[in-house]
Design brief:
Elements lengths: L1 E4 L6 E5 L8 H10 L5 E4 L3 H10 L4 E4 L1 H21 L3 H4 L6 H5 L7 H13 L1 H16 L5 H17 L3 H12 L1 H10 L4 H18 L1
Parallel strand pairs: 3-4
Antiparallel strand pairs: 1-2
Length: about 210
C-alpha cells in the first residue's frame, strides 16, 4: 500500500494499492481539484515517487529523511556481506551467516560481545570493515548542524566511498550525489518523516496481530 499523510496534522490524505507512481494518480486528481499548494514532501528515495512529485507538485521541496538514507546504506552493507558469502567455502560462510544485525544496528546499541565479534569480522573481511566504517561516518554527518559543513562533508564522503572501488559503495555514492538536494533539504527544512515511519510500524503491528 501507498499512504499519503499530512505531516503537520497527521491526517491520512490518501491510501492506494501498490508502490509505483501510478498508484498516486487518483491522488493527483484530488490535488488538482482542490488547488492546494504543497510546499514540502517527505519521501523515501524510490525513483517512482520522486518522478511523481516532480511531475505533479513541481514547486514542492523534496525532503529525503535520514532514516531512508541510512536504511539504503544498510542494504548495501547486506549486499556486500552476501556477495562475500557467495565467494566463501561452506565452512567459512558460518562466520557471516545470520550476522546482518551486527553490521546494521547502530554501533552504540551493540553489547560488548557483539562489538568484539563485529570488530573481528571487519578485520577478516576488509570490504565489510570499510563499508561499516563509512556507514558510521554517514550517521555522524546527521549530528552536524552547520549546513555548509554538511554539504562539504557529504561530498567528501562520496569521494571516499568511490575511492574504495567497492561496487556497492560506488552505487551508494552515486545515489547520494543524485539526491543531494533532497538529502540536504532535511537540514534546511527540519522536516522529518519519523511520524510516517511510526504510522507504518503501527500498521505492521496490526497486520501481524490479525494473522495470529
Amino acid at each position: 500500500m501507498t499512504i499519503v499523510r499530512d505531516l503537520y496534522s497527521g491526517a491520512t490524505l490518501f491510501v492506494g494499492r501498490g508502490k509505483s507512481g501510478d498508484t498516486l494518480e487518483k491522488f493527483a486528481a484530488q490535488l488538482k481539484r482542490s488547488k492546494v499548494q504543497i510546499q514540502f514532501v517527505a519521501v523515501d528515495l524510490a525513483p517512482s515517487f520522486t518522478s511523481w512529485i516532480k511531475k505533479h507538485t513541481p514547486k514542492a521541496t523534496i525532503v529525503y529523511d535520514h532514516f531512508h538514507v541510512i536504511k539504503l546504506m544498510n542494504e548495501q552493507l547486506c549486499n556486500i556481506r552476501r556477495r562475500i558469502m557467495r565467494e566463501l567455502e561452506d565452512k567459512e560462510k558460518v562466520d557471516l551467516k545470520g550476522k546482518r544485525w551486527h553490521f546494521n544496528r547502530n554501533q552504540e546499541n551493540l553489547n560488548e560481545q557483539t562489538r568484539k565479534e563485529l570488530a573481528n569480522y571487519c578485520h577478516l573481511y576488509q570490504e565489510l570493515g570499510t563499508a561499516h566504517e563509512l556507514k558510521e561516518a554517514l550517521r555522524r554527518i546527521y549530528k552536524i548542524r552547520n549546513l555548509v559543513f554538511v554539504e562539504n562533508t557529504l561530498v567528501y564522503w562520496c569521494e571516499k566511498a568511490e575511492a574504495c572501488q567497492i561496487k556497492e559503495l560506488f552505487s551508494m555514492a552515486k545515489t547520494l550525489r543524485k539526491h543531494a538536494a533532497g538529502i540536504v533539504a532535511f537540514w534546511k527544512t527540519g522536516i522529518t518523516s519519523a511520524s510516517m515511519e511510526g504510522f507504518n510500524n503501527k500498521i505492521g503491528w496490526l497486520t501481524r496481530q490479525a494473522c495470529v
